[in-house]
Amino acid sequence: MINVTKSYLPDLEEYTEYLKGIWERVHLTNDGPLLRRLEGEMKDFLGVKHLKFCSNGTIVLQMALKAMNITKEVITTPFSYVATTNALLWEGCTPVYADIRPDDFCIDPDKIEPLITEDTQAIMATHVYGNACRIEQIQTIAEKYNLKVIYDAAHTFGATYKGKSILSYGDISTCSFHATKVFHTVEGGCIVTNDDDLAQKLHHYRSFGHRNDEYFSVGINAKNSEFHAAMGLCILPKVQALIEARKQVFAWYDERLDFSRISRPTLTPGVSYNYAYYPVVFDSEETLLHVVDALKAQEIVPRRYFYPSLNTLPFAAGSEPGAPCPVSEDVSLRVLSLPLYPDLPEADVDRIASIINQEVAVRSAEVL
């Protein structure tokens, strides 16, 4: 079976060497030496000022909202993984959805400003598929209205914008290190900021708001373990090689797919991509469903990512309706992420592309 992704695992002996040290120290969690080392190496790799390694990519979004006292309206994107909306709802905020750009599928800055009210406190945008939002435009709006900017940068590890890690932008950026990501720690995530005071607050938040017997604030258990840090230390030195391998798979798809009948999102100028995903967009949901069925018949499993448009979720019914989101609602019905991982064989890419091209051609002929 060919799944939409396959987690990279390092050599078992390499990981076991770290486990031996954990067994010797019997320091399993609670800000252990491997965790601190991984934080330092990630900061150096990304070139960011403050980075906290946490338990997953959702809890860091919640921490970001809490740390900046965001409790009212937040303008956000309807085209993202559900964690973006869930974090807002979980923290008692009101999502206000701004539609996306039709070219890169990131939040459209031109749709943000008309939605701002006296209750708007922040913009939470997603760098979709690891591609940067229109960062300067968003920052200009935020400064004009004194809003905070939180980036859900779950897909961006190893990607840069204008020579800097995409995680270095915004008041706070967050990332996921789930097993499906370009860089992973099995489960995990991080929160990044350039603000010293915010960094200190987030450090306390991660561990129940206290250090030893000193209590500083409310907090939550967002710590991660030495076992997860060990996985990260094994994989981090290989990230550039993994990105290069993904880039090759990306190129094979580009060579083989028939783009007269399908399309894919464009990259934002200034982005050096990490090849996190390979999304394609069909002419209709009906065509997409036929392609999915044809692929699954050959034990190939793509993913409708992102689907559905978050503004249509029934449990988000209490959200402010804002303006309609026709672009997101349309794209979410027609976009499909294809299998992409470093050791995906060229022959399998060829087979996947052939199935897609054939199904799309058949559907186009039926329409004619």
Structural notes for this entry:
The protein is an alpha/beta fold and 368 residues long. The chain has two domains: 12-237, Aspartate Aminotransferase, domain 2, CATH 3.40.640.10; 239-367, Alpha-Beta Complex (Aspartate Aminotransferase, domain 1), CATH 3.90.1150.10. Helices cover 39% and strands 14% of the residues. It has twelve helices and 14 strands. A seven-stranded mixed β-sheet has the order 1-9-8-5-4-2-3, with helices on both faces. A three-stranded antiparallel β-sheet has the order 7-6-12, with no helix packed on it. Strands 10-11 form a two-stranded antiparallel ribbon. Helix 9 (239-256) packs parallel to helix 12 (346-367). The radius of gyration is 21 Å and the shape is globular. The mean pLDDT is 96.
Describe this protein with a few key phrases.
368 residues; alpha/beta; Aspartate Aminotransferase, domain 2; Aspartate Aminotransferase, domain 1; 2 domains; 7-stranded mixed sheet; globular
Q: TL;DR?
A:
With 368 residues, the protein is of the alpha/beta class. It is built from 12 helices and 14 strands.
Number of strands: 14
CATH superfamily of the largest domain: Type I PLP-dependent aspartate aminotransferase-like (Major domain)
* Biggest sheet: strand arrangement: 1-9-8-5-4-2-3
Radius of gyration of CA atoms, rounded to a whole number: 21 Å
Pfam family, one: DegT_DnrJ_EryC1
Organism: Spirosoma taeanense
GO molecular function: pyridoxal phosphate binding; transaminase activity
Keywords: Aminotransferase, Pyridoxal phosphate, Transferase
